[in-house]
Amino acid sequence: MVRGTICRLLVRDVRFPTSLGGHGSDAMHTDPDYSAAYVVLETDAEDGLKGYGLTFTLGKGTEVVVCAVNALAHHVLNKDLRDIVGDFRGFYRQLTSDGQLRWIGPEKGVVHLATAALLNAVWDLWAKQEGKPLWKLLVDMDPRELLSCIDFRYITDVLTEEEAYEILQKGQVGKKERGQMLMHGYPAYTTSCAWLGYSDDTLKQLCTEALKDGWTRFKVKVGADLQDDIRRCRLIRNMIGPEKTLMMDANQRWDVPEAVEWMSKLAEFKPLWIEEPTSPDDILGHAAISEALVPLGIGIATGEQCHNRVIFKQLLQAKALQFLQIDSCRLGSVNENLSVLLMAKKFEIPVCPHAGGVGLCELVQHLIMFDFISISASLENRMCEYVNHLHEHFRYPVVIKKASYMPPKDAGYSTEMKEESVKKHQYPHGEVWKKLLAAQEN
Ligand SMILES: C[C@H](O)[C@@H](O)[C@@H](O)[C@H](O)C(=O)O
Ligand SMILES: [Mg+2]
C-alpha cells in the first residue's frame, strides 16, 4: 500500500568523464561526459524506502537541470504519496503547468528534464512500496488506473481516453503468455562498438567481441565525414555479414536534402534505419526524408530528443518515422511515455527505445517490457538499445543474456545508484573530479 508524506528532496550533479575515452561520441556530441541530475526522495513512513530518479545529461549544464529540479521541488515536498498517485494526471499537470515555470518550457528543455527526474523518483518510490519492479506494477494495474496517470491534453485529436482504454483492454488478452515469453528476455541491439570517436582498430576489436557474445544487431554513428562513414560502414558490414542488422545514427547533423543524398550513398550497406537525420523539431523534414529513403529500404528512427508527446503525435500523423524511440528521461517520465506507447500502437509503428547514456538502459527496459506485455503484443521489428557503459554504478544493473534484456526482479525502477559512485563522481567536489580538474589546471 502507498504511504508517507514526502519530507526530503535531494538533487545531485553526478558526472562520469566518459569523453576521455571517446565513449558516447557522435557527429554532434563529440565529447560527452555521461551525467545525471540525480534525485532522492524521502518520506516520513517507517519503512525507510526512498525514491530515486534521474535525467540524463552530457556534462556541462547538469547544474542548470539541478536548479530546475529545485525550482519544482515545492510541488513535491510535503505531498502525501497517496494523493500524488491517487490523481497522478493532476499531479503531472501541476508540475508541467506551473503558471510561472511553464514559461521556460513548456514541457520541453531543462524544465521538462527536471520534471522527468522528479517523476522518475516518484515512480521508483511507488513501485518499491508495492514491492514490484516498475514494469510489473504497470502490467498489474487496471487499465483505468493506468489511464488516470496520463495527461491527454493536446493529443485527443489522435487518441482519446476511450480509444486508449480499448487498446489496453485488447492488450489484456494473452498477457500472461507474453509475460512468460519475456522470461527469455527482450531483444536488444548494441551501440557500444561504433561511437564516432573510436578508431577503426577499436571498432574491429569491439565488434569481434560483440559477435562472440551473440549480438546480432549493431548501430554505427555516421554524419561527420562521408568517406569515413563509407569506410566504417563497410568495415562493420563485412564483419557482421549480410544477414545481421545494421542501424545508422546521424544525431541531427544534416539538412533535409543532405540527409537524403548522404544516405543514398550509404544505402549499399543496407541499414535498417537512419536515426535523427536532421533537427528533432523538423517533423515535415523527417517526413520528406522518409518519403525519399523508404523506397531504398531505409526507415527513419527518431525520438531521443523529441520534447514531448505533441512532437511524437505529429511525427506519427505526418508518417515521418518508421521506428519510434521513446526516452525514459526526456519525456515527462512514465506518465508521458505511456501516452506515446499508446499512440504508437494506434499507428502501428514499432517502438525501439533509446537507451545507453547513464541509467537509460536501467529505466527504459521497464517501459518496453510493459509495452510488449500490455500494449504492442509484438516483437516484430522491435528491439531496445543497449550500451555497455556505467552499469557498475547502479545498485540494480541491467542483466543481458544472449543479446536480450532479462526482466528486472527487484522492486522499483532500477534508478538507484551506489552511494559510493555518487560521492566519487559528484561534480565538482567528488574525488574523481577534484583530480581531473586539478590536472587540467596544471
Ligand atoms: C551523446 C550520446 O551518446 C548519443 O550519441 C546517444 O545517446 C545516441 O544518439 C544513441 O542513439 O545512443
Ligand atoms: Mg541516437
TrEMBL record:
| Keyword hit for Repressor | no
Q: Which UniProt keywords apply?
A: Lyase, Magnesium, Metal-binding
EC number annotated for this UniProt entry: 4.2.1.68
Task: Identify the InterPro entries for this entry.
Answer: Enolase-like_C_sf, Enolase-like_N, Enolase_C-like, L-fuconate_dehydratase, Mandel_Rmase/mucon_lact_enz_CS, Mandelate_racemase_C, Mandelate_racemase_N_dom, RHMD-like
Known catalytic reactions: L-fuconate = 2-dehydro-3-deoxy-L-fuconate + H2O
UniProt key word Magnesium: yes
One Pfam family of this chain? MR_MLE_N
GO BP annotations, alphabetical order: amino acid catabolic process; carbohydrate catabolic process
Instruction: Give the required cofactors.
Output: Mg(2+)
PROSITE patterns reported in the protein's UniProt record:
MR_MLE_2
Domain Mandelate racemase/muconate lactonizing enzyme C-terminal residue range list:
200-295
Single GO MF descriptor? magnesium ion binding
Q: Which family does it belong to?
A: Belongs to the mandelate racemase/muconate lactonizing enzyme family. ENOSF1 subfamily.
Protein name (record):
Mitochondrial enolase superfamily member 1
The record lists the organism as Zalophus californianus (California sealion)
